[in-house]
Amino acid sequence: MSIIRHQATTSTSAWSSQEWRHIFLEWLVIAWLLYFMFLAILTAIYTVIRKRISRNLLGQGKRHSLTKPDAAQFSDQVHTRRFSAVPMGDDDGPTNTVQSGYERWLFGTSLHCLWVFVPVVSQIQLAWMTAEQYFGLGWDLTASKFLCVYVLSHMLLFLGTRYRGNVKTFFMSPCSLATATHISIQDKDDTSGRQQSLELAPVRHYEGGDEGRYYEYTCVRYLWEASSERFRPTGTASITGQSAHKALDRGGLSHADAAELLNKQGANLINVAVPGVLASLLAEYSEATYVFQLACIWCYLFWNSWNISLLWVILVFGSGAWKSLFILRRNQQQISDMAAVGTTKMQTVLREGKWVDIKASEITLGDVVQVFDGIVTADIALLSGSAVVNESMLTGEPMPLQKVGVETQSIAAFDNKKHGKKHALFAGTEVLQSVPDESANASRGSAFAIGVVMAVGGRTTKGQLIRMVLFPASVKFKYTEQLPVVYAMLTAWATLCFLNSLVFQGQGFVNGSFAGMAFLAQALNPMMAVSFTLGQSCSASRLKEEHIACLSIGRIPIAGKIDTMVFDKTGTITHGGMALAGVRPISGAGRFEDEVATDKLNDGLAQHEHLRHALAGCHSVTTMRDGSLVGNQVEVVTVKALGWRLSAPGEPRMLTAPGGDEELAVLRQLEFDHHRMTSGAVVRSKTSGRLLVFIKGAYDKVSQIAESTSVPSDYAQVCDEYAKQCFYVLAVSWKELPRESDETAVAAIPRDSLEQGLQPCGLLLFRNEMKEDSKDVIEELKGGGINCVMCTGDNTTTGISIGRQCGIITEGTRVLMGEIAEGSTPRCVEWRDPDGKEAFLTDWRKAEGRVELALSQPAFRWLVREESESLDEMLPLVKVFGRMKPDDKIKVITLWQQHGPHGEGTVTGMTGDGGNDCGALRTAHAGIALSEAEASMVSPFSSSRGFHETGFISLSAVVQLIKEGRACLATNMATFIFFMVYNLIVTSSKIMMVMWMDITYSEWQFIVTDVGLAMIMISTMVRCRPADKLAPYSPSASLFGTSTIATVVLVLGIYWITVGSTLLLLQYGPGESFYEFSTTLLLEIPSQQWTKKSDNYVTEILWLIAMVVLLTSGFMLCYGHIHRQPVGKNWRICGLYVAGICFVLALTWAKPGEFSCLFRVNCDSAASKKMSIPFLSKPVGGIIFSCGNLGGCFLGPQMVSCKREDHLCWIVPPNGANVTASWTSQPGQKRPVAPFDTREEKEHFCKTHPYTSGDEDATGNKWCYTPALDENHCGPLPKRSLGKLVDGCEGPNNCFSDEFKGVLTAILALCGATLHCTYRFAVLGAA
């Protein structure tokens, strides 16, 4: 790629071609302006017509709302409803999202194409005009035309990409949803009524007439529903136990019904689109920010800086390609692979009474299917048989769960929250064992369990999680919310710089505009946003090294601001498993008897038949084919301790005593009910024939449903005492049914009836040991200023006990437990000391001393509903929430997120095992699931840290996540400060240079600073690792925080103080002996040749100081302080800092040569002329990577002002410029009077008296020499002395004397030391 300009010949044909191109260029701009006027008029007409259509729609919508025609009438009417008022139809709750109908319109489509023609063709024209500038017509004939096309095309392109959703709908005709060809999904602002388009989805048709219309949005199909006049989401079916079994009795779906449903619902697939390489790049580069960057690239390219433009292309579009292909597309591919798991397997379904094999992607809603071992491909409600399922792929819960069929006579609609735990198989989970039910021909000839499909595709539980990952809810965070404000301020500053360039640049509007665009490019550096992503990616990699998976890197810095961490108890603070510590029988007389140890259960319970039979039969444990037990972990350990044998899978449920002398048959199982908090069974003793009901559950619930006379008087006291000792306590009760009742009669008895008239027979005592590192982790978190809260499904007393052991409850503080007062009117929360040291209180504020609070679930719910302000006041003191269900845990997280001064809320984290806390993990700002799975989709973070080493997942992952989050946040803030310092230093320096001397940085000064230093420094800054210990507080996340502003002001202040001091010493101190002042206007350097405007003393001093300040700033911003490791441990930035400082000092002390002249520091004309660096100053194969400021003459200030005795230097300024002969001129010393007073007069004079090389007597030789007139020589011929110069330098130069080099070195060292000290002690010391 050569920039050696093509020298046009002076032949007649060449000039004719050039003249023709010039005329064409002039008319081309006029044609563009006329074309824009034509489009503007056409668009105005189009807008008027379109608004009339919209008003007609609005009017017909109002009339339709009054007449309320039926569905058929609505379908026949074209414009019958206001399109902007149609809600999305999402069943997940209220939303401001609406769907609006649009259709293609020839007028709009044609107008759209005419507008798209502008930016497409303009890019070709810009390329042509750039080529003409380099190789043909030149700058003067092309610059103004280029600028016109450049501004109009990029402004249009920016608006089109910034508002592309609205642009698409603008060029379509609004219409009724009933006739729409496209649906716009929009967010509606309730206050303004305006809509922001999110996505435009095409309406498709399936076989089934005109009403067979649908569109797909976020992996969900939306079907047209004429009765409700909108598109509604599909993919789920409402079933009951009765309807599901009727479907089985009917023999499943007919082939015709199944085909129709499949046609409507679509395939059982989660359609995660993975764009191709080209599509990924187009999607990335269609962002508005790339339009601005493209504008900067064209500006540099046309402005004789093609090499800088090339570097920008590589940097900007290279980083975009890396982001789109190696981050976004790779993540999309991983999600697509997760979504596709199991879709290719074969599934056996019941069609017209016969089992047939089809692809899993072809099953549809209502299909009766056989449940095979392996991955579940749809959400299925079990009808008959049972299945053992591993749900860790979705929830992270490692414990296999047993699922059983729904009750035959149930008329309640199947609800995943209520029934899914026991009866649903969720897509994406793995069936470990499927067992058929042989009774009553329920299996229909199947060797496996049978279920009915209730959700397919994107509406399955797996689909919802996939959608959550693909389309995450936005999380408000301070610095992301403030970033647009920062960009607005930088834009204002850049605009000011732009205007400054136009006013003070001194070479006209066109030249000033290009100089101003350079200001915009440096003031709005696009790498600032990239640095955030880069820092978060590095943090995610470090987390992966610690066995912490991250699904959303944007949540990492948010984790660094966590103020409150909510913990689940079981499986999180304590081990997931429980051990049966013993049982405490209750006699028939209602008295507690001696505790029985686990290893003596059968012998110890010989006299307690009811309790022994309850332990044997009141559970849902089943056996695998290999003999292992599966079920609730508490029940599994009980069965193992008792030693009774279970019947084989698929056989009638029987339990046999170890000696075979007793046998129980289970007639009915009562699954655990979250609302009742009980489970149970109805069993018949084969030995005695007795029919017994056993109910097991929370001890407080059992006491409420048991006969009061049978409950021991000290029941509550004994149970609470066990709870205080960290026992997990369950109570068992029983009653007897008439012996003649058979299984059918038992099945017909309502559960409420079974749970009446019970008699307690004993307590089960389980020990849930705390993890070995839990106490240390909680202690470190609290030391890090993080409020720790426990939210457990266990009873409140046990939660308090565990809270004390692990340190969540502060040692030495009193605890008040809030419960709903029984019998009080009106109802209120009653507070008591669980240790019995204080009587009941109705106001926790009246308690003496320092207290912390615990709330039971009923008290919490009552406070949420009745006393929300009081709850907000006490929330910081509540350390334990007991008996909390999944929805309650979500509410706790939400309350903490809303709690805080000025309504800012609290950054809240959640730690759980991924079981019943999935909702809370998703709701929290940063949730971490402690899961054995590689990654849990329910949470942004998941960890298996320590599992392979210790056998349990360490809670220390929480500390590591917060450490990394704080380090990431500190690094993001550091890179932000660095770019703010960089932007302001570079732009403010250029403003001063333009206003004062119309000078700028050299080509390679710019490349090193703007491209090299900025990106290399950032790539090293993000390598800072987290500190070994949590600091007492989190780093600031405010871009307008005191420390942030103080740092920026501090660095800028030190920079300008250093610059001012150095310039004073240059002009009036040691530099006075060699310093000369000149402006590029006097040197007559054209604006487009801006790379030659750096050959002076001021530019090199500003650049050397800026390099030291920027290097030091990047280094000092990586001081470890309290959130990151010491900067010395980041060898990359240490190496860069040392190398950078050595580089600056080498340039400061360099003699004129190729190295110094490459950066135009300590360079002279002789050394510059001799430069021969391949590809930089010496072409290789016609290619040279320079825009013209390497090699050739050095255009130093001595060309205008020199220390020659007669003060006649090489370039003579007009008399009106009043330029002194030399900086050291004495008062009264003046230049020889020139024969012209103004620049215009000089131009006229030199036309009549041209410079003649080698003619000493020629008048023009004396007054009219400029470098452009004689490119082969550096100076006029014959040679003219410039007077005294710095030793070792020849001709125009910017060489420093040795004395000044020493002074400058001391100044640079003092500047760096001042930055280090003031930041370390003034900013960090105060932080």
Rg, alpha carbons: 40 Å
Structural class assignment: alpha+beta
Question: Oligomeric status of the shown chains?
Answer: single chain
% residues in beta strands: 15-25%
| Contiguous helical run count | 43
Helix content: 40-55%
Shape: elongated
The overall strand count is 39
Low-confidence runs (pLDDT<50, min 5 residues)? 1-14, 62-94
Distance between the termini: 52 Å
Indicate the mean pLDDT: 83
Describe this structure in words.
It contains 43 helices and 39 strands. Helix 34 (1003-1021) packs parallel to helix 37. The protein is of the alpha+beta class and 1327 residues long. 44% of the residues lie in helices and 15% in strands. The protein has a ten-stranded mixed beta sheet, sandwiched between helices. A nine-stranded antiparallel beta sheet has the order 22-21-31-30-29-28-27-26-25, with helices on both faces. The protein has a six-stranded antiparallel beta sheet with strand order 10-9-11-18-13-16. The protein is elongated.
